[in-house]
Design a protein that fits this description.
The complex is a heterodimer of chains A (about 100) and B (about 220). Chain A is mainly α and about 100 residues long. Helices cover about 75% and strands about 5% of the residues of chain A. Chain A has helices spanning about 5-25, 35-40, 40-55, 65-80, 85-100; strands at about 55-60, 60. Chain B is mostly helical and about 220 residues long. Classes of the chains: A mainly alpha (about 100), B mainly alpha (about 220).
Chain lengths: ~100, ~220
């Protein structure tokens, strides 16, 4: 087996295993309240981290680029209570335009 | 609250439809990248169909393409996917039914489907999760196939600003989660931890470390 297929197999198996762990072992049961008090805050913590990394990461470094203009535009759209579709399109369009002009 | 099941699945698909376009675009670039890294047309398609985790796939394939070892590629992918451990725990109470059914639906958990299914205060709608996850999965596999089989029509998705669509979605979904001081504090901590670690830790580590931001909820409810 070539390296490529070993990677395909290994990455596939580990991903399936990591994703299954919680739902298969704990599925359908409510978490103990000590745990659920923590898990409740997972969404805001991880969403904030996703915003920061996806808006700023360039490989393993921080890059301030056209995406920031897109995020500014998205911020304005959110402030004006635009629907999510509009927020996403505005962010992409502002970023594309900035790259075009840059 | 419940609604008809078919409608809830469709609502999930509708919620991520604009993102599915971006995912299709990145699927095409993943297919192209894999070919330029020396993979056959089949390998990236099989990989996208069996590993539904875009960032991990990009990392693994670019490491191989740059001449990296098998273990470096696999370790990078695992680091990027570790966040699905805590994310899986957060949705677990809402996925009921037999183990095989929970196992299958767990595969449809990606950042975007998880984020749109979050209803706040730790609640998740499993039908929204599945509807959104299925559409994103189809877009990801179809995009990969187009890219791997030589479709270059779309060009670089970054030209269209599609890379900014993802943080914009996450920002839009984060704001309604900020319901009280604890959730705001968790978000600020999560963002700050990710920012601090980005320049020094391999990709994926900042997000898994940021999930520790939720530990301020210990002992309080």
């Amino acid at each position: 087996m070539t390296d490529v297929w070993i990677v395909v197999l290994a990455v596939g198996t580990t991903t399936v295993a990591i994703k299954s762990l919680g739902p298969v072992l704990l599925g359908g049961r409510s978490l103990p309240s000590a745990v659920s008090g923590v898990v409740e805050l997972l969404a805001p913590a991880v969403l904030a981290a996703l915003v920061v990394t996806q808006a700023l990461a360039s490989g393993q470094s921080i890059s301030l680029d056209a995406r920031l203009v897109g995020m500014g535009a998205a911020g304005i759209a959110l402030w004006r209570r635009a629907p999510i579709l509009v927020v996403i399109v505005v962010a992409a369009a502002a970023t594309a335009l900035t790259r075009l002009l840059g | 609250m419940e609604g008809r099941p078919a409608r809830r699945y469709r609502d999930g698909a509708r919620a991520v439809a604009p993102l599915a376009v971006a995912v299709l675009g990145f699927g095409i670039s993943f297919g192209l990248l894999a070919r330029s890294a020396g993979m056959s047309w089949l390998a990236p398609i099989v990989m996208s169909a069996t590993t539904f985790a875009g960032s991990a796939q990009f990392a693994a394939v670019s490491i191989l393409g740059a001449g990296g070892t098998v273990s470096a590629a696999v370790i990078a992918a695992v680091l990027l996917n570790l966040r699905y451990g805590p994310i899986g725990v957060s949705v677990a109470p809402w996925l009921d039914g037999p183990a095989w059914w929970r196992f299958l639906r767990a595969q449809l958990v990606v950042d975007e489907s998880w984020a749109v299914a979050a209803e706040g205060e730790g609640r998740f709608d499993p039908r929204i999760l599945v509807g959104a996850g299925l559409l994103l999965y189809l877009a990801w596999v179809a995009g990969t196939a187009i890219g791997a089989l030589g479709g270059q029509a779309l060009g670089d998705p970054k030209t269209l600003g599609l890379d900014a669509a993802f943080p914009a979605l996450f920002l839009a979904l984060l704001l309604p989660q900020l319901r009280n001081r604890r959730s705001i504090l968790a978000a600020v901590l999560g963002g700050a931890i990710a920012l601090a670690l980005m320049p020094v830790a391999p990709a994926g580590v900042p997000i898994i470390a940021a999930s520790a931001g939720c530990l301020i909820g210990v002992g309080r409810k």
